[in-house]
Amino acid sequence: MKEILYYKSSNGINNIYAEIYNCENPKCVLQIAHGMCEYITRYEDFANYLNKHNIVVAGNDHLGHGRSAETLGYFGEGDNLNHAVDDIEKLSLILKERYDLPIYYLGHSMGSFIMRYFISKYSAEKCILMGTGYIDDFSATVLDLLSIFISKVKGDKYISKLLVKLSTGAYAKKVRGDTYDWISYNRENVEKFANDPLCNYSFTVNGYRTLGKYLLKINTHLTIDRTSRETKILFVSGEDDPVGNFKKGVLKIYNKYKKKGFKNIKLIFYKNMRHEILNEDNREIVYSDILNFLEN
Questions:
Q1: Is 147 contained in some domain?
Q2: Exposure check for the chain: N or C terminus, fewer CB within 10 A?
């Protein structure tokens, strides 16, 4: 059963929208950090599947997203880098008060970038990094500096075609087809995304600057060094995902953790899948692998 709640953001201004999918006789909780230009309700089918296996699922809409946004794609003023991460922790504390159960985490796409920072700042027993990738420091710095420059000229809420072209536009170029074909082979999923006003929008300059900060933060050795070596991490990605540079970027991140002494890590690639592996035609394979990771 889905429950909706709101709580105050760590920025002290926004009200954060969250959903909890409850079930009978729960054995653990999975908390999800969704990706860029989407929202937590898109994970409802996956949550219902896990509910049938006695796993509670919860997640919030990030700042600038879904029903937490005053302006879509705008994270707000102040320390945006930490606010979105701390908002996840605030929901975790709500869940810990309610359930005397282990809480595990899943971050998809931009949510995986946020989650990589989250598990270095807070403790996590298990974490799934889905649709993640590697963006080099140069590209992240260019994104950050361009965002700063454009915001000074046009303002924080300005939508820059150049920044769109350099980010999600670059993924679209790597896959033949329509604007959003890079997210999925599943035609119905692509059309739903394209026709959803809570998905089909562009980040503001402020949003891209926040994204650039995350990319620079998670690229530092310190972020991985501060992550507990006891954390069990599962990397899952579509083989044809441009965000993961068609496996290369995911392998780079996986090997970074491995070289830092992480032994409880696993990597699974899925053939004939793009970015949103939870929404592909044969998604049940992914569902099953994640369930197995959570249960064992």
A1: no
A2: C
